[in-house]
Design goal:
4 helices, about 30% helix, Cytidine Deaminase, domain 2, 6-stranded mixed beta sheet, alpha+beta
């Protein structure tokens, strides 16, 4: 159990670190996809677009969640866990609950659990149904 807790903390830290890499300075979000305590994909918010998103929304800029999913491959996400973190300019954590477009994609590709940062500096999560 201790190993899983340490890994979860590490995955959250990677998502927080990735949030500083994105090209959207006011929206610093990062995400990681995890399979059996192994990070398999990392995503950040970006002004880049992707054809997959053009069919889903009129605002096709990549969100961190979408970026991680697309990098992993839409057919390779079944049963994975997604960690998402939003870091403010003062380095405090903020709410990073996936938007409706991201939530739909998450369900479609079969991700089993989401863990995201919240305004009090912690993390919450839920099982995707």
């Amino acid at each position: 159990m201790k190993k899983e807790i340490r890994f979860e903390q590490a995955a959250k830290a990677v998502a927080m670190t990735a949030s500083g890499v994105g090209s959207r300075a006011s929206f610093r979000l990062g995400s990681v996809l995890v399979h059996k305590n192994r990070i398999v994909s990392v995503g950040v918010n970006s002004y880049k677009t992707h054809p997959v998103l053009a069919t889903r929304t009129q605002w096709p800029f990549l969100h961190a969640e979408q970026h991680a999913i697309i990098r992993q491959g839409l057919d390779n996400c079944e049963g994975l866990v997604l960690y998402v973190a939003r870091v403010l300019k003062n380095n405090d954590l903020a709410l990073a609950q996936p938007c409706n477009v991201c939530s739909d994609l998450i369900k479609e590709v079969g991700i089993k659990q989401i863990v995201y940062s919240i305004d009090d500096g912690g993390f919450e999560g839920y099982i995707v149904s």
